[in-house]
Amino acid sequence: MPVDYSGKRIEMYMVVGFACAATWIFLLVDFLLGSSGPLYEVWQEVGGVNFYIIVFTLLSSIYFIWTWQKMLRFRVEFHELMDTTSKAKFLRSLDRIEYLAWKLGEDAHNEVHEKREAFRIKRRK
Q1: d(C-alpha 45, C-alpha 84), whole Å
Q2: Count of domains in the chain?
Q3: By the 8 A CB rule, do 108 and 78 touch?
Q4: What is the DSSP letter of 37?
Q5: What is the DSSP letter of 123?
Q6: Residue 1: pLDDT above 50?
Q7: In angstroms, rounded to a whole number, what is the distance separating the alpha carbons of residues 17 and 68?
Q8: 3-state secondary structure 13-24
Q9: DSSP 3-state of 38
Q10: How far apart are CA 125 and CA 120, in angstroms?
Q11: Domain, as residue range, for 40
Q12: Using CA atoms, how far apart are residues 59 and 117, in angstroms rounded to an integer?
């Protein structure tokens, strides 16, 4: 049975991003230390691609950390829009709320559904 991770996207981006950043820092320091570094034997075996490994981990960490903070901003905006007690404000921002719920996963969809029921708003056709 497949596991649904859509509600855990932010946490997954955070973990992968920080793991890539930590790996990049470790590899960069070891690369700069040269023959006195703990991975000297590994660098000798890898050969000329060690620079590309460092660049790849740097780019990966930038991508995942950027995506993580973007998802965090989506979550903050979603909760700001959902915290309204006005039905008119909720209806005005409904398109944006549904887009953010689509990006954030199943938990956000359930929250939107509950808020629709609380305001007695029918589904659009």
Answers
A1: 60
A2: 1
A3: yes
A4: S
A5: P
A6: no
A7: 8
A8: HHHHHHHHHHHH
A9: coil
A10: 16
A11: 6-119
A12: 44
What does the pLDDT look like over 57-94, one tens digit per residue? Answer: 888 888 888 888 888 899 999 999 999 999 999 999 99
Show the tokens assigned to 56: 């790849």
Q: Is residue 124 part of a domain?
A: no
Q: Given the structure tokens 């740097």, which residue do they identify?
A: 58
Instruction: Please list the alpha-helical segments (H only) found in 1-125.
Output: 9-33, 40-46, 50-82, 87-92, 94-104, 106-119
**pLDDT per position as a tens digit, 8-61:** 666 777 788 888 888 888 777 777 776 666 667 776 776 667 677 778 888 888
Phi and psi (nearest 5°) for 45?
-70, -40
Closest by CA position to 96, among listed 83, 78, 120: 78
Residue 1 included in any domain = no
Instruction: State the Cα angle at 34 between 31 and 39, rounded to 5°.
Output: 65
Quick check: is 62 in a domain? yes
Cα distance between residue 53 and residue 116, in whole Å: 49
